[in-house]
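Researcher: Please translate sequence to structure tokens.
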Amino acid sequence: MDMFAFMGPYGPLILIIFVASMLIQGYLSSTYKKWGNIRNPRNLTGAEVARMMLDENGLHNVPVEMVPGQLSDHYDPRQKVVRLSESTYGVPSIGAIAVAAHEVGHAVQDKVRMPALVLRGQMAVPLSLGMNLAPLLLMVGVVIKMSGLIWLGAVLFGAALLFHLVTLPVEFDASRRALQYLKERGISGGGEAQAGAQKVLTAAALTYVAGFAMALAQFLNVLGIARSSDD
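Model: Translation complete:
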């Protein structure tokens, strides 16, 4: 109980969500490992699918690059480039084409200026700076018993929660675009292969849901500390 009290009123909830997040990460890894070893019916690599989807959406100037690591795939809206990990770029698996199509989905969102994506991009840099300060402000505020610093830290944690909330529709929409493209072009082949692509993207989406849940628990925890500082 002393440990939970030190962590704040929502300490137990944070621990539960943390454990759940680890389980979700394990599920994502095992799901991708399974479908990352099963060839897709068209025998297309992640890079080939990404290039096809980009070109069909008029994004001929957006390059597809390979980056080190596994599941390090991302779309960079500032440099306008799709970056695929080594386990996606040159691999003709169901998992690879699902991930590749998802990242191109973000490029398409950028092209049409999806409001949630634009907002997330605007929040990213200032929020990154703010979250580096938030724990320090909270700790110093508690030590010197200055409620103003604690509340400032709480506001920054609230901004992080908003960022995670905005991220959810962005990621879900990118997966929707990916699955629709793979199905309409017959790339996934339908049936079990299409179901496999959906499982990979669902597992990835769960990590963002877990991230939002963690941010919510942290914000509630800090909010409880801030409210206690006013007593």
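Researcher: Any highlights?
Model: The chain has eight helices and three strands.
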